[in-house]
Amino acid sequence: MAQVTLRKVVKRYDEVLAVRGIDLEIADKEFIVLVGPSGCGKSTTLRMIAGLEEISEGQIAIGGRVVNDVPPKDRDIAMVFQNYALYPHMNVYENMSFGLKLKGTAKSIIDTRVKQAAQILDITDLLERKPKQLSGGQRQRVAMGRAIVRDPKVFLFDEPLSNLDAKLRVQMRTEIKKVHQKVRTTTVYVTHDQVEAMTLADRVVVMSNGVIEQVGTPDELYHRPTTKFVAGFIGSPAMNFIPCKVERNGGALKVVLADNLAFDVPASRTGRYEGCVGKNAILLGLRPEHITETRQHMEVDQRPFDRTLDVTEPMGMETLVYFTIGATPICGRVAPNAGARDGQPMKLAADLANMHLIDDSTGKVI
Amino acid sequence: MSVATPAVEAASPPSRYGSMSRDRKWALRWSYFFLTLFAIFFLMPPIYMLITSVKTSAEISAASNPWWVYKPTLDNYIELLTQNQYLTFFRNSALVSICVVIITMLISVVAAFALARMKFWGSATLATGVFLTYLIPETLLFIPLFKMFAYVREWFDIELMNHWWTMIILYPTLTVPFCTWIMIGYFASIPKELDEAALIDGATWTQTLTKIFIPVALPGIIAATIFAFTVSWAQFLYPLAFTTSTDQLVLPVGIVTTLIKGDVFNWGQIMTGALLGAAPPLVIYAFLMDYYIAGLTAGATKG
Fold first, then answer.
1. Which pLDDT tens digit goes with each residue over A118-136?
2. A234-251: per-residue pLDDT in tens?
3. Number of domains in chain A
4. Mean pLDDT of each 10-residue bin along chain A, 366 residues long
């Protein structure tokens, strides 16, 4: 059993608070991804779990044992670094077996474990090579191999794919997922790439400014963000935030935007947004895929409107269209054959069934 | 403006494409010119030494062309190498230099590792302090050192004056600060993740130093070793001040004090002695330079 528990964990560098009292429960065998922009405290949190940074306040427990004062080697963890951190003078076999050798593990056991890990990662042919004779992807595999052979309670990954090119990154991402499915070790993975976070994680922890914004499954974060930060951070292109007012429309509600645009709020949401009527600083959150071209048979909650497009970006499987509502730049996603052209007017539809209303003063999703 | 631009481009000389290689050609010509100048300037003295060392005393003092040997002879070499005195100087120098190199590297590698990596309170100030001690001219230290030697004699009844092995204690004051400084720089260039990986792998600080840092920083260690050896082999002032008996002299001082008798300069033997004395550093350079390969860290991290 290797659950990881963080209780009120604080990291302070002199006057600067890098991590501001976070609480997190990571279950046994779970794949958790910490994601957030640079400087949000995600790497610091990981390094505190690893024991590479001291904890200023709070408590970290691995497998039920508080490890605040336990040195990294006794925490039974393994870490994969962004820049691989392979020992340049040792070959792949020596790199992978170094930790076990220091522990005094028997040679035969070391040999079996290294060969098993090499097989999992498909690097059996590379065991005699030095790190400088390997490509970036191979080095990253070796770094993972070094972690696997130690059979630790927890794997820690610190942005392991950031140094790889886009194609290799996608490939290694799948590879990491496969490895986790095989070895089923509790994993904490840090990245700034939300796509990596969404694709790998059982649960994603979104961090910002030293605090946890939201913890949830990728699906929850995408469809039910609780804060403006999470709504804007998860998803690419990012969610549109359009200033609006909520007004009564007979028994129903409507959101009034700039440029005389107004959309009826779906009946199912009326209750939830009742309190927003007449309030200032309300934002309508709509993801680009919920602003599409009008179709012949529109869904119930789709609301048509006309706009002139500023820029279009054909992506192949879809076309991104950019326009403004008032002064707010908006991004929408239309079918490639919808006839979107730069500078041309277009009939679009907003899918209000997937709308969010955000209180901009508190940053909370209503 | 947009109309004028193509006209300007059309007016520019058509031979633009060749300019890169033409620049390179000129750069190479200048490089060769200055390198030749440099080589002549620095190779003249050793060539002059070599020519003089194979001349007889009579020929050296004759008013003939100093750059030509009329009657080459190996007498100077034979005479010097059959003299016990010269071999003693050589042995003293070799022992002192080897011991100094060992002591220096033992101290500076460990000190540099601690100062560069262990991040204790005051480590940065201490690192600067180490380097500052190197900036004190050695000539300023004679009097304090004489005083210290007197105290040692008084308190412990150990005579440090006029012993070749005293140099083993003295030279590290010159070599340790600089070598530590070189090694601090070298260790600092090793990615931090490497010792963190070792730490997680279960290595102690000592194991991190011996199993990771020393092998990775080998080029730096070799550079520091060459420096320490050269300094102790060529050191002149300290042995001149602290040793007097002929059997206690090291090579640089020995040659000068024994081969210049009064106002008689035995130029043939002086040049021979100096030339033979220059051989060990040359051999060491030639041998260690092969190992002095930068980029050993390539592959440790990205890039």
1. 888 888 899 999 998 888 8
2. 888 889 998 888 888 887
3. 2
4. 85 86 89 89 89 88 88 89 89 92 91 89 89 88 88 88 83 86 88 88 89 89 90 88 86 82 83 80 88 79 83 90 89 88 87 86 84
Q: Is the dihedral of CA A36, A41, A47, A49 positive or negative?
A: negative
**Interface of chain B against chain A, CB under 8 Å?**
191, 193-194, 196-203, 207, 211-212, 215-216, 296-303
With CB atoms and an 8 Å threshold, state whether A73 touches B199. Answer: yes
For residue A44, what are the domain limits? 4-230
Q: Which residues pair with A156 in a beta bridge?
A: A79, A188
Domain closes at, from A196, A230, A264? A230
Here the tokens at position A5 are: 């528990």
What ipTM was assigned to the predicted interfaces of this complex?
0.81
What integer is the mean pLDDT of B230-247? 89
Supply the CATH number for residue A349's domain. 2.40.50.140
Q: Are A262 and A115 part of one and the same domain?
A: no
Which domain range does residue B57 map to? 18-73
Interface of A with B in 24-43 (CB under 8 A): none
**What type of residue sits at position A268?**
S
Residue A160 and residue A187 in one domain: yes
Residues B63 and B90 in one domain: no
d(CA B90, CA B233): 10
- What is the 3-state secondary structure of A120-157? HHCCHHHCCCCHHHCCHHHHHHHHHHHHHHCCCCEEEE
B149's enclosing H/E stretch is helix B142-156
Cα gap A56→A44, rounded to integer Å = 12
User: Among candidates B237, B267, B268, B269, which has minimal Cα distance to B252?
Assistant: B237
Interchain CB distance below 8 Å, B191 and A85: yes
